[in-house]
Design a protein that fits this description.
Rossmann fold, 19 helices, Structural Genomics Hypothetical 15.5 Kd Protein In mrcA-pckA Intergenic Region, Chain A, five-stranded mixed β-sheet, six-stranded mixed β-sheet
């Protein structure tokens, strides 16, 4: 990679705040730097919003710097109050450890933990054995309560109530940074912008205890043009686990983003060269769909692999018609521009319905709601009246119509709600 990776991070939109921009640019343009990002084990999977720090780590690793992914088995037991209006649910230690193992596997897909360019650690290894009194004497004495209460994360919670256990979170995160500095020579911590106060606390702790200067960088908290939070849909989170959110649904999430977000998302969530992204984000009107398909393909390939991305692209094409752009990247980083019109519909979200029910006939309102295309039968009926529900590309024009075994084709029965939501039904 030519140039300074810090400048590329800025141009791609990864940088919100930096402790010392001149120092960070210098350190990332010189000898390999060890940096870290923490991921608390609060769920069985990371989600699309987690891709912002992950992709930033990928860029730094590709530039020759060493990544440390910290799975927060210890900090998860306390709970980060940042951005939360209420205290997080307290999880059992075994659940936290199990979830941490799944996050480790997910992060390995992006970072390739080889012990040299990237490693993964669990902060439970050094936080859980701590002696409380000794920790207060060695670490707690360096923290000002007044300064902590001035942090945005704590100010937002004071009115609703901030538990004492949450109040300790900043100390633990700062201690993580100190531990990684001592053990691995880590001199840069990165995280979401809501972590700014916690990260600076670690910078200050290392200065006080070790007399050393380390740096901090935060990423912007993404809100899409629609006002929605990045990685969220009406149905819930866009999980990175294919068992929770299929590669096809993942692909469709990116295909259906707002036109206004395409350029920014291409910069953040693909490895396409900036020159190619500038070309794509200049597309207007219907041409923007081509840029969206390239975004969807590249993002799906990074998370689920090339085979899954190809299958999702082909299924999307087969389900919705029209040519799709083959976003395979050539050696110079440009999209090849090939097209494909075939697709395997078996990768679509699918529900098996007992044959006896299909033979008897099922009302569209019942079936569309059952497979999750509509939130309720009432909403399904409203959409039928407005001409918004389809079976096998045929508009359902009356609520009295029954969907039966006769609607099953060789690939099953394709249900569509509007232009973007599709589900396949097969006889079970």
């Amino acid at each position: 990679m030519s140039g300074n990776v810090f400048d590329e991070l800025k141009e791609r939109g990864f940088v919100a705040q930096v402790s010392d921009e001149t120092a960070v640019r210098k350190m990332l343009g010189g000898h390999p730097v060890t940096f870290y990002v923490g991921f608390d084990s609060t769920a069985t999977s990371l989600h699309a919003g987690s891709l912002v720090p992950i992709m930033a780590m990928v860029h730094l690793r590709r530039a020759g710097h060493r990544a440390i992914a910290v799975v927060g088995g210890g900090t998860t037991m306390v709970g980060d109050p940042s951005g939360k209006t209420e205290m997080r649910q307290m999880l059992d230690e075994e659940i936290i450890r199990a979830q941490g193992r799944t996050l480790h596997i997910q992060l390995a897909r992006y970072l390739r933990f080889d012990g040299a360019g990237a490693i993964a650690v669990d902060n439970a290894d050094w936080l859980l054995p701590l002696s409380y009194i000794q920790f207060l004497r060695d670490i707690g004495r360096h923290f000002s309560v007044n300064r902590m209460l001035a942090a945005e994360a704590y100010k937002l919670r004071l009115e609703r109530g901030l538990s004492f256990i949450e109040f300790n979170y900043q100390l633990l995160q700062a201690y993580d940074y100190l531990t990684l500095y001592r053990k691995y020579g880590c001199t840069l911590q990165m995280g979401g912008d809501d972590q700014w106060g916690n990260i600076l606390a670690g910078v200050d702790l290392i200065r006080r205890v070790e007399g050393a200067t380390v740096e901090a960088l935060t990423f912007p908290l993404l809100t899409l043009a629609s006002g929605a939070k990045m990685g969220k849909t009406a149905q819930g989170a866009v999980w990175l686990d294919p068992g929770l959110f299929s590669p096809y649904d993942f692909y469709q999430y990116w295909v259906n983003v707002d036109d206004r977000d395409v350029g920014r998302l291409l910069r953040l969530f693909t490895l396409l060269p900036l020159e190619e992204i500038k070309r794509l984000e200049a597309f207007k009107d219907s041409e923007t769909n081509e840029a969206k398909r390239i975004l969807a393909y590249e993002a799906t390939k990074i998370t689920h692999g090339e085979k899954a991305a190809e299958e999702a692209k082909a299924a999307s094409n087969a389900a919705f018609g029209g040519k799709t752009v083959d976003a395979t990247v050539t050696k110079d980083g440009a999209a090849s521009g090939k097209t494909s019109v075939a697709g395997d519909l078996t990768v679509l979200p699918t529900t098996a319905v007992p044959r006896a029910r299909l033979e008897a006939g099922i009302s569209p309102a019942e079936l569309f709601t059952e497979v999750g295309l509509t939130p309720s039968r009432r909403e399904a009926k409203r959409l039928i009246e407005q001409g918004g529900l389809y079976v096998n590309d045929e508009r359902i024009d009356t609520v009295e119509r029954l969907l039966t075994i006769k609607d099953l084709g060789p690939d099953g029965m394709l249900l569509k709600a509007g232009k973007k939501k599709i589900h396949r039904v097969v006889a079970g």
